[in-house]
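Input:
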Amino acid sequence: MLRYLARRLGQALLVVAGVVVLTFAVMRLVPGDPAVAFAGPKATPEQLAAARARFGLDDPLPAQLLTYVRDLLAGDWGVSLRTRQPVRDDLYLAFPASLELVGTALLIAVVLGIPLGVLAARYKTKFPDFGVRVGSMLAVSVPVFWLALALQTIFASNLGWFPIAGEYDSALDTTSPLTLWTNITVVDALITGNWPILTSTLDHLVLPALVVAAYPTGVIAQMTRAALIEESGQDHARLERALGFGETSILTRFALRPALGPVLSLIALVFAYAIVNGFLVEAVFNWPGLGRYAAESIRSLDTPAIAGVTLLVALVYVLANLVVDILQGFVDPRARTR
Amino acid sequence: MTTETRTPETQPLRRTLPRIPDRFAAFGAVLIVVVVLAAVLAPWLAPYPVDDPRPLERLLPPSGAHWFGTDQVGRDVLTRILYGGRTSLFIAVAVLAVSALAGVTLGVVAGYAGGWIRDVIMRVTDVFLAFPALLLSLALAVVLQPGVNTVILAIAVTWWPWYTRLAASMAASIATRPYVDAARCLGVPAPLIILRHVLPNSLTPVLVQLSLDAGGVILTSAALSYLGLGAQEPTAEWGLMVQQGQTLFTTNWWVVTFPGLAILVTAFAFNVLGEGLRNALDPRRAVK
Amino acid sequence: MSDHLIEARDLRVSYGGRVVAEVPRLDVGAGECVAIVGESGSGKSTTLLSLLGLTQNAEISGQVRVCGVDVLTASPRALRELRGARAALVMQSPHAALSPATRLGVLMRRALKLHGVRDVDRTMARAMEEVLLDRELLRRYPHEVSGGQAQRFAIALAIALGAEVILADEPTSALDVTVQAEVVGVLRRLRAERDLALLLVSHDLALVSTIADRVLVMKDGAVVESGPAATVLAEPSHPYTRELLEALP
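Output:
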């Protein structure tokens, strides 16, 4: 087990190294001179040269890569050309908001998807199964930005049931300002007992979280169904039938727990995908997360910021994969040799 | 009852090609045929010219003359959707062709060769898999001029690793089969073994994967266009249509609704067929 | 005739029109042990499962009465009441037959509650004692017990539920020889003490000769020979039975 852990960790580090190199390459590919962007259009040649020297733009590329890696290791992710803040500080504000959105969405996906999968498996080939199958297929096929627009138009603009955009009512910042602990608004509001901001945030979360939840809900329902059907075809299900248990209780009391393994690892994998998918939703609902930050950075060709977002999302992906593989290694000894 | 006759010649074919397993998957296949026909025959089916702004006929609601209404510059939405299908399907076919070709080649080499060649290829694959597809596409779309070709390149760059993984695992399992061993012992050169035995046997899962992926590619390309980084005016493209109409959703619902539905239906059709094919290949997932 | 706990007449099991098992007559009375022998694929396991209606997607015709319940026409509810409480199943691979994420004690407790057994704790303790298992095993997961222990636990389940009939499908073939003897010993003792009707499916003629009163020999889904165990095994009349006997070490 220890050897498996070490090997898997080594692989992950190798991937991270590759991601860093690729990020650096993309950064250098982005058009526009970062020195010009930093010093401003009216800069004198001297100011430009100073900016070039500051970013090390006159060094050969391998030297620049080395500097980049050294800075990253020292925790320096560069300075955003747009906000003039360290990228790490910007990400520290934006990432928790994305986490809040995606976390809520995955919670919804688990709470909806697993029971739907159970329902489909219980009545397989019957009408409920067909309904879940069509529904989950639609959920994974719907363009998120369109679904976001549709829900926003119907439930916010027309019916007025939910706020149109934003994370919470900004007037609350003056009437009941929030003390930051984790930068995740919901969590901070909860631990500091800031009810006005908590309820306002939850209210603002409903529509975007539902949209982000569509894809994972569909995938989880399909996976739960498949895993349960496989599990209920195993020998132990036959014994449980022979003991007089009904199909529903076999599924929920005996098959669900072993079937949850693959479903949980799927959730970790969907997590990274949901963050990126959330970008489009953040754009529609003006959610102050990574997606909005990335969109604004791309629009202003803010290379350090683009690189920062890319690197962060890639790290999250690698980490999620690592966690899944290690968990699988614990659950299934055969996975270790792969 | 109908009597079923099976001639011996049809037997091998039945085994290699997955049967359309159920009516739902068949429905997906029919839907795909309809979408493809609509796109291919767009010039003959479309009631109006594709780029024909008529300022006096702006934002007309659906009617007998304009089934899906007209857009913000007075073009027929139905016509734009039919032509938009050409763009989406062209992107999907191009992306999948490029990624499958590059991915399968690398994967088959990795799986057949094994050893350090395999390790190097698979680690590079891991790096590209770890890269968020949409984000890399976004960055590339910024670097290059926005447009259909950029979208194809950007998505293909993030898509090929999946085929490498799939083909590598298939090839690795085929490379250890007795008949491949036998061929190797007889001195058949490696490229010939790959071409004759490994490649044909890896093909079926790749085909299934292609069908499953087509929906994803269409969704990603629409997302890029929606962000303004894909197809540009006056090209008809569904994601672009949604973006241009999004502020009009409350007042002129048809401008946004129909292009979105077009994306949904097309992605749905490919996903349904892909799932059916996968179930046919992997009986554990199938419902019997 | 009605004192038999298992009674099958003209039983025929088929999948999609293909007959996989055909048994004209099968009776097992209280305190009796009947064995069905044959190679794998001969239809013996299918026959056993069909007696409790546990074959999936199979068409079954004929008449089957287990503990007086007409299995083929009974309501799902009546079937569930029969299964476990009166007729119990012991399966071939002891580990695969137990849900991997459920502790043994939890499974037994759920089964007892399902069938409305009162005094659950005492019943569980007594059943474990009868099969010579430590009560501590109830706290373990299936992968934490040995094959022999798992198989004896399956028998303990039957005892705890007060089953009158045990249907055992190759109960020893996945076990070591010494463990086989333990399990067979438990089965034989319980049959004598509790007057259990025991239907055993096995390809192991050595095992069958030590426990069975009567034997049915099946080949390709059909019964080719049947009769008292001593007669059939000593003077087989069908060439196939002779073949099976000659294959013994």
